[in-house]
TrEMBL record:
UniProt name for this protein: Small ribosomal subunit protein uS15m
Subcellular location, record wording: Mitochondrion
Natural source organism: Onychorhynchus coronatus
Residue ranges of the region described as Disordered: 51-70
Domain of life: Eukaryota
A GO molecular-function descriptor: RNA binding
Gene Ontology CC entries for this record: mitochondrial small ribosomal subunit
CDD domains xrefs: Ribosomal_S15p_S13e
Pfam family of the protein (one): Ribosomal_S15
Signal peptide segment: none
Assigned protein family: Belongs to the universal ribosomal protein uS15 family.
Length: 182
């Protein structure tokens, strides 16, 4: 059995639409079970789980667009895809969707890291993810590039020798002028 991120949701919890209705206190147990998470679909459970994740970082009740909230949405989707891919490893479309969401979340976290570092750290801690810096740019090594680099190094060394000789010449001329002035 594969553990799910939705396991911590209590099955007696009512669905989002029915939770705040006053009539729910007087409803029959069978109806209550039908309207609870026990009979809810995976999609409905996922909505509630994502809502719980987002409530932790939301700045105001109408905040749906901040980087932290978007990162939480992406994390919920990524975890759902991970669970699905453990059960169905050959599902290439969902793997592709998950990788696209991972890239988007990484982009969001990179932006958040640049703009508000303390919020970035808090978000990473709450999400339970470890952000890794993108790799430094690496140029693909080709023969042509190696030859060009070697040539540039030779030119630089020759220029350095010429400048050193010129500096030595200027220094000796300056010392000669100082001696002549004495």
């Amino acid at each position: 059995d594969i553990p799910s991120q939705l396991d911590d949701l209590p099955p007696t919890m009512l669905k989002k639409d029915y939770a705040n209705l006053p009539i729910m206190n007087s409803v029959d147990d069978v109806v209550r079970r039908l309207l609870s998470l026990e009979m809810a679909s995976q999609k409905e459970k996922m909505k509630i789980k994502t809502q719980q994740l987002v409530e932790k970082v939301r700045r105001s009740p109408s905040d749906n667009g901040s980087s932290e909230v978007q990162g939480k949405f992406k994390t919920g989707r990524i975890r759902m895809f991970e669970e699905h891919l453990q059960r169905h490893p050959k599902d290439k479309n969902n793997r592709r969707q998950m990788l696209m969401d991972v890239d988007k979340r990484k982009k969001l976290l990179g932006y958040l890291r640049r703009v508000r570092y303390d919020t970035f750290e808090n978000t990473c801690k709450q999400l339970g993810i470890q952000y890794s810096l993108p790799p430094a740019y690496r140029r693909r090594v080709t023969k042509r590039w190696l030859v060009k680099k070697a040539f540039c190094i030779k030119v630089f060394q020759e220029a350095k020798k010429l400048k050193a000789a010129e500096r030595l010449k200027q220094r000796t001329e300056k010392q000669a002028r100082v001696r002549a002035a004495r």
